Amino acid sequence: MDILDHWLNGAPFAGESTRTAPVYNPARGVVQREVRLATTGDVDSAVQAAKAAFPEWAGASWNKRQGVLFTFRELLNARKEEVAAILTNEHGKVTSDALGEVARGLEVVEFATGIPHLAKGEYSENVSTGVDVYSINQPLGVVGIISPFNFPAMVPLWFFPIAIAAGNTVVLKPSEKDPSAAIWMAKLLKEAGLPDGVFNVVHGDKESVDALLEHPDVASISFVGSTPIAKYIYETASKNGKRVQALGGAKNHMLVLPDADLDLVADSAVNAGFGSAGERCMAISVIVAVEPVADELIAKIKSRIEGLTVGDGTRGCDMGPLITKEHRDKVAGFIDVALADGADVVVDGRGIEVDGESDGFWLGPTLIDKVATTSDVYQHEIFGPVLSVVRVETYDDGLELINSSQYGNGTAIFTNDGGAARRFQREVQVGMVGINVPIPVPVGYYSFGGWKDSLFGDTKAYGPDAIRFFTRQKAITSRWLDPSHGGINLGFPQNG
Length: 496
Ligand code: NAD
What we know:
Pfam families: Aldedh (PF00171). It comes from Glaciihabitans arcticus. Keywords: NAD, Oxidoreductase. GO terms for molecular function: methylmalonate-semialdehyde dehydrogenase (acylating, NAD) activity. It is an enzyme of class 1 (oxidoreductase). The chain has about 500 residues and is α/β, with parallel strands linked by helices. It has two domains: about 5-250 and about 455-475, Aldehyde Dehydrogenase, Chain A, domain 1 (3-Layer(aba) Sandwich), CATH 3.40.605.10; about 250-435, Aldehyde Dehydrogenase, Chain A, domain 2. The protein is built from 16 helices and 23 strands. It has a seven-stranded mixed beta sheet with strand order 15-16-17-14-13-19-20, sandwiched between helices. A hairpin with a 2-residue loop joins strand 2 and strand 3 (about 10-15). Helix 2 (about 60-80) packs across helix 7 (about 180-190). The chain is globular, with a radius of gyration of 25 Å.
């Protein structure tokens, strides 16, 4: 069987490991290739390659780095169907959704091409007589990126274009469940003229992650994944003296006020709940319906679900399979929990008819009403096509529910009342807020990140925060001496 190698110094690298993991086609339920799982030594080889490439890349002009990114942007845009096909093949998401993922990643590449402007320092003339102060932004060195399975192209693209543009060199550890997109992008970067060693990929599991977290030559870690691992990454990388941003899981609520347009709400709930089979950190997983709208809204959502097609992502279906059989079974298990906890399963996605092979990891869209907030269905991030409804009596009840969540990634309010929406944007304890927008992923020139257990660290992904994260600021105080500057004075320097 085909084994996917790491990528080091601009070429495939087998490394020393004998361990591999299976990479499935989730729509067919078959293993289509194996991926190597790096040892600590393999990770060290990648870090050494990145370290060796750093001085020259950090010393390259802004114009040179910007030029590589412009070319990469053109290549990625021209060949997006190629990488989208890889995403569908290994992740399962349908072709249109895979293309959407690439488009959102492209936004960050476009943002990064502005690096000469974005990374400019500041200058103050004459802070004291004849003394000037200015700041410069310098790259960190070797930066580590660890990404999840659900956006195999977009999440790496949140980080590496800006890291590279700022003069850093990169070691990416993508998800071992769908690792091929990372290698495809590495080849594209080489084609775009990126010098060898600036961008490296190691595949692996905990061993490779720990090797990155503990490596003395890795300056920073950018992580996206589930909350328990994000917390572990934040604590371990910080303990090892690294700059770290660790984005975690989510449970995103959609608050529906009685004055909302319920057809628009139902469309949005279905799109945001079941797109990518609910395997999005910005998926809507809980509808908080302010009564009396619940019955009418549920009927509208149910009728839309009945029109959805589930199947192989290459066949024009609305929704594809889940990533693995284990994950599919875990998500389906929440439907049993809902029944045991007395909720009302309005649509049960088990046993759905699919346009695909029977061994695929299928679960149809599922709608559960009257979910108790004490139930595991409400308490846990399910990360699948399961939409819960919680009924509340007032806006305040809904707000309190959202603000009590351990997560604070995304949320949305649906209303035609501008005053209520404005109040919500001020009062809600969540990092990304949609007003009549169900998946409020900020555009590339704003930063992406949640609050509470959805983000550990103080800088978000891409946008202005990424410029700060991937550079170190240096402040320089300078004067050009003339005889008037002489004399002895042991006091603390003061301006004058
Ligand atoms: P995950 O936490 O299982 O894995 C993420 C990465 O960590 C992978 O590269 C994996 O190999 C590695 N990893 C897994 N277990 C590890 C361990 N014990 N020690 C060290 N490294 C480990 O997440 P996933 O299942 O790949 O992705 C889904 C999760 O990611 C969901 O919780 C989702 O909400 C979250 N997510 C969050 C965002 C965000 O922006 N906040 C975006 C996308 C996904």
